[in-house]
Amino acid sequence: MRTTLLAAAALALAALINPPQGAAADLKLGVIAPLSGGGTDWGIGTQRGVELAVDEINAAGGLRVGSETYRVSTVTYDDQYSGQGGTTAATRLIEGDGVKFIFGPLGSTPVLAAQAVAAPGKAVILSSGYSPRILTPQGRHNFRVTLATPEFAPAFIGWLRRTNAQAKRVGIISPNDATGQSVVPILVDAYKKAGFEVVLDEKVERGTSDFTPLVTRMIAQRIEVIELDSSTPGDAGLIVKQARQLGYRGMIMQTGGPAIDEVVNIAGGLAEGYTTMEWFDAGSPEAAPLVAAYRAKYGKAPMNAFVPIMYNAAKLLFEAVKRAGSTDVTAVSAELEKLEGHPSLFGAVRWGGQERYGINHQLMTDFFIAQVKQGKPTVIDRVRP
Amino acid sequence: MALLLDSDDAPSARWRPLARWAAWAAAAAALLAFPLAAGGFLTHTATLVLLTVIGAAGFHLILRVGLVSLGHAAFAGIGGYTSVILMMTFGLPWIVCFVAGGVSAAALALLVGPIVLRLKGVYFVLITFTFGEILRLIFNDWQSMTGGANGISHIPPPWPALMDTRAYYYLALFAAGAAILFCARLLASDFGRKMDAIRESESLAEANGIPVFAVKVIVFAIGCTLAGLQGSLQAHFIRLISPLAYSFQESLNFLVMNVVGGSNSLVGPIVGTVFLVALPEFLRGWVEYQFIIYGVILVVVMAALPGGLVELWQRACRWITSLSTRSGR
Amino acid sequence: MFTFAILSQIALNGITLSAIYILVALGFTLIFGVMRIVNFAHGEFAMLGGFALSFFYVSLGLHFLVALPIAAVAVGAFSLVLERVVYRRFYQREMPGMIASLGVSIALMYGGVALWGTHQRSIPSAFSAVYTIGPIFVTAERVVVIGVCLVSLALFYLVLRFTRIGLAMRVVAEDRITAEAQGIDTVATYRFAFFISTAMAALAGGLIGQLFSLSPFMGLMPLVKAFIVVILGGLGGILGAAIGGLVLGLGESFVSTFYGASAAQFISFGLIIAILLFRPQGLVGRKEG
Amino acid sequence: MSVLLAVQGLGKSFRGLRAVNDVSFDIREREIVGLIGPNGAGKTTAINLISGAIRPTSGVVRFRGADVTGMPAHRLARLGLIRTFQATNVYAGKTVFENVYVGTFSSRPSGFWPSLLLTAAFRREREQTRSRIEALLEDLGLRDLADTPAADLPYGYQKMLGLATALAGKPKLIMLDEPAAGLSAEEADLISVLIGRVRDQGVSVLVVDHNMRFMAKICNRMVVLHHGMELTSGPTADVVRDPRVLEAYLGTEHSVA
């Protein structure tokens, strides 16, 4: 009986062999994003951003490459925000679906895992994790399409220095996860360079919901700036609410995000003055067509920052494929590098990162400083890293 | 093979030896030929299944003395981290690291086992849960050694040829086969009978001269060793190790595999693992309902099918036999 | 750091937490004591309580103090369906019951995801006032939380001590066989105990939603706390749950304020292991058998 | 007849409550000794203390001349002291044959590897064990039920099987905790005959039971416990006529009613 069961199991698996790959005129793009668990909203944003760009190019008749016109489609897999999930999803896209271009993942661990699968040269990966290890001189096909902490922290904290000349004592609250652990040293460094003193640096386990002990501690240490780093939107909202309830009067900053809508939702009136960065100003005139397309396709669901970021990344990729005249991974990577100055949703393309990572694969974009004013998120400044 | 699985009560008497050998040969051939027929992704998945089976079999052994360890995944973590750190920091050859992965898990189990095994039932579940979480916190917070929450990436394969998924499949197949044969032999031996006696009644087993505590410690150590070996093989396959993969949810997965497959025989965890990995494939497009279905399956199995899918199969066989004898008349 | 102001603030925070922990743990320990089931889905009933409160309070616009008990009763009533379909099959069978309740937990959690999505949401503050008593900040929210917990604990005690069904629950928990022999309707007793247990969890869930936030995954926290409380206090005891809850709430508040959240976590886990090994009956419990 | 088991000053207290207090008695070879007393007198506790299930707070237990006080039950079983329980005496999921097979472990070499590797010596030894089990089952009239799961047996047969399992361990002394409880008079008689035969084969027996008729028939001597203390002991005929014994039993009967 054991034997028959084993044989049956093996046959069942064999029966799952993937269907034949699509016709030549079909270009499949891969998306890896968290679609279950905590990061789901960001994952859906990533997926939708790519889909909007794909709809747009298909509506225009498809992607012309050399003599051929491709119809573009997407395949999305859930990475559950984990390393193993990243490996499985990337293997599946590359080996199973024959995908050569991948958008996401957006957590540091799954990005590193997906890059390991794609090496050497099996796919271009346009990801958005915060870890500094995502960009290396060897990773010729890895690009980061969001600003990460090393890029925006100095500029954001510089802005804080300019606008708050007296503040000195900083307390950092960060999640004790992959992102928090990689980012905090960078933040501490940036605060020190700007002349602040980092008095407390607290790591919080996932699932914590009572932050009053931490905040009590911050108040007792006469902290003037509470920095929320990469705390999830929900946690950020709770910390803001509990801090204000305990009579904290200083600044609350989040060098990371985006979370402002959730913070207002959770903390209500107590969110006043919470300051964070936005990758994108959805109220600007350039954003209007994208917002309209989003509303048309997805209705009233909130549009988070990953939608414009990944929409923009997909459009950059299409341009590079067009210029390369092929879907060859190496050729497309080379053309992506040469897009410097090309107009995009975020202004003219700027690649950076040479000094920090040894490779110019970091997409540099201006970002916005947003603050809750009279209960509403308001963009108050624009900063260039 | 027949010799390896020798046991007094094997229901195999019905089978003609030839047919039995043929079935074994067919199964072996199917498993060996699998990567040739299947694509890269399926081979990748099959490799993961084979590796998971090793840990699930370890969990099964512990379950067979009536204990549920929610720290099982953490022991896989011990094996994985030990192996990876020895290889990447100290440059030791893989086979040494692999053995060290198993030995470290065994050593920790022998250290902790005599303490935690003083507890039974629900209390054992709680203490292993707590112990597993402490290990996970250590993996997460000891950044200089374990790379913290980011873990360690770019782990080299055991040797360069195993960079290829198909090659790794055969390593996994060999390892899983060896582990399963070992467990099958163990359970069929006198030691296995002692384990079963303990699960049925500890005090009676003790009165019948079975050193209950010692048997439990040994079983716990063997089960954890298998977890450690799985952890090592898996880390070098995924080429990335991070604490998230060793949380108590992963231990729960081992439990679900055993319960769904069947907790009364070694076939259970094998079937359960295949089922749990294959299920999402059948539920594609239902991703958001997948876990709801898991939960319902768990309840249904516990309520109506305590022997798991294996029991379902046995019942089906019996039903077919009864049908054919009836129609034969 | 160890000033009077801070210590009293910590005590206040700790008591709020304790109140919630006790509410959760009492129901958890009641189900174990009466039916011998470790209910892994206990936290999910708290989660359902949070969303039910959100429905009655936010969507229907009922007064908070009206919506809260209605939500708890609604969840309790819903749980009776699960009691009938699932739990009843597993009474007095510890291991199978635990695994089945795990299934219920997973199904409810992801049922919540399918219905409400994964993002954290909040229940707007019903009481936004903040009082300052000397150097301490007291929010009306927390006063209400403590008040609701005290009232429901008192009710629970009265029911258990002075009603027929309360007596029945105590007798069944003590010795089921004798209880049956003496003609106690165990099925009705189980059903009532189950209802009380899940309703208390739902109440706690509502308070957690008000104080903190709501999400389908929020059930894990109350479950883990319930575990710790009953280990501290001994599984199956009422007084134990109260003392365990106080120790955990105050201890957590104190340690994480002075030594950080990670330290609090390590210490509470270490404490559990020590207690399980040296006093498995809990700090106040009696030895079994 | 030499002394097989010597119990001296045995005592156990739970949280200051003395369940067993200063109990002493001997069991000689080929002797059936009854341990009697009203409910709560500490009979089962005494068996638990002697068999190593719980550790005594005071006193000494000597078995075959060696001090075995507090020795774990499985080691005592290997020395030849095997007990049965009031309730669970069979492995419900195993067949009759398998139950008895488990019983043989305490009388066989316990090596881990020979069985795992199925050495020739192990197989030979197992073959002998198998014949021995078949003979035992034959002897007890359980032969035809060898492949029946223990859970499917009628209650009387389960009691019998428990006894068979204990005997398979080749005990020198067997301690039976209420072997006749819940049996019909006819079944009890069967068990008493069996116990007699066991004694005739050279095994000593310590029996605990409420059924005085049953006890009086089989026991050579009796030890009476009351409130954890030894009330009296002596030949069966003397003990059953002792007015203190009668009073102890009746006293509790009244308090129960």
UniProtKB/TrEMBL annotation, chain A:
GO terms for biological process: amino acid transport. CDD domains: PBP1_ABC_ligand_binding-like. Gene3D superfamilies: 3.40.50.2300. It comes from the Bacteria. The keyword Transport applies. InterPro entries: BCAA_transport (IPR051010), Leu-bd (IPR028081), Leu_Ile_Val-bd (IPR000709), Peripla_BP_I (IPR028082). Keywords: Amino-acid transport, Signal, Transport. Residues 27-375 form the Leucine-binding protein domain. Residues 1-24 form the signal peptide. Transmembrane segments: none annotated. The keyword Transport applies. Belongs to the leucine-binding protein family. PANTHER family: LEUCINE-SPECIFIC-BINDING PROTEIN, PERIPLASMIC BINDING PROTEIN OF ABC TRANSPORTER FOR NATURAL AMINO ACIDS. This is Amino acid ABC transporter substrate-binding protein. It comes from Vineibacter terrae.
Automatic annotation (TrEMBL), chain B:
The keyword Iron does not apply. Keywords: Cell membrane, Membrane, Transmembrane, Transmembrane helix. It is found in: Cell membrane. Pfam families: BPD_transp_2. It comes from the Bacteria. Its main location: membrane. GO terms for cellular component: plasma membrane. PANTHER family: HIGH-AFFINITY BRANCHED-CHAIN AMINO ACID TRANSPORT SYSTEM PERMEASE, HIGH-AFFINITY BRANCHED-CHAIN AMINO ACID TRANSPORT SYSTEM PERMEASE PROTEIN LIVM. This is Branched-chain amino acid ABC transporter permease.
From TrEMBL, chain C:
Coiled coil: none annotated. It is a multi-pass membrane protein. GO terms for cellular component: plasma membrane. Keywords: Amino-acid transport, Cell membrane, Membrane, Transmembrane, Transmembrane helix, Transport. The keyword Membrane applies. One of its GO terms (molecular function) is transmembrane transporter activity. It comes from the Bacteria. GO terms for biological process: amino acid transport. It is found in: Cell membrane. The keyword Lipid metabolism does not apply. The chain crosses the membrane at residues 6-33, 40-58, 64-86, 98-116, 136-160, 192-214, 226-251, 258-278. Belongs to the binding-protein-dependent transport system permease family. LivHM subfamily. This is Branched-chain amino acid ABC transporter permease. It comes from Vineibacter terrae.
UniProtKB/TrEMBL annotation, chain D:
It comes from the Bacteria. This is ABC transporter ATP-binding protein. PROSITE patterns: ABC_TRANSPORTER_2. Residues 5-252 form the ABC transporter domain. GO terms for cellular component: plasma membrane. The keyword 4Fe-4S does not apply. InterPro entries: AAA+_ATPase (IPR003593), ABC_AA/LPS_Transport (IPR051120), ABC_transporter-like_ATP-bd (IPR003439), BCA_ABC_TP_C (IPR032823), P-loop_NTPase (IPR027417). PANTHER family: CONSERVED COMPONENT OF ABC TRANSPORTER FOR NATURAL AMINO ACIDS, CONSERVED COMPONENT OF ABC TRANSPORTER FOR NATURAL AMINO ACIDS-RELATED. Keywords: ATP-binding, Nucleotide-binding, Transport. SUPFAM superfamilies: P-loop containing nucleoside triphosphate hydrolases. GO terms for molecular function: ATP binding; ATP hydrolysis activity.
